[in-house]
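Subject — a protein and its fold

Tokens — whole-number codes for backbone shape
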Amino acid sequence: MTIVLIIGLHGYFDSTEREMLVLAGFALLIWLPALRCPPAATVVAGVIAEASLYIYLTHYQVYPLFDGHPLLGVVASVVVGVLLTQLVSVLRSRLRGRLGPLRSMKVPALRLALPASWWPRWHRRSESDLR
């Protein structure tokens, strides 16, 4: 497997140092069943992993603000993504608290977003269907 990885990465980045770094990371993922790290590092990694979508979506706007300071731009992008994740989580929990328990609907994805009273009468289920 490692040989396939070496062959696949050769010349991919046009930078030997970068290829070696990616090769080392993938080799660790392939060959180490577990990687021990301090609990604090695990918590930080979990927070960043949870925020990865928002980090990705916002880094295009945040990173360019720190032109000439790439490390500061990366740190700022991660911080903005984490803060946005926390904001969305708080808003979701408040919205759920306001709406209360929602009745089942035919559209599961929308069931969490809209209370049943907002749906047209023909789309609502009867009380007997909910039991």
User: Anything to note?
Assistant: DSSP finds seven helices and no strands in the chain. The mean pLDDT is 82.
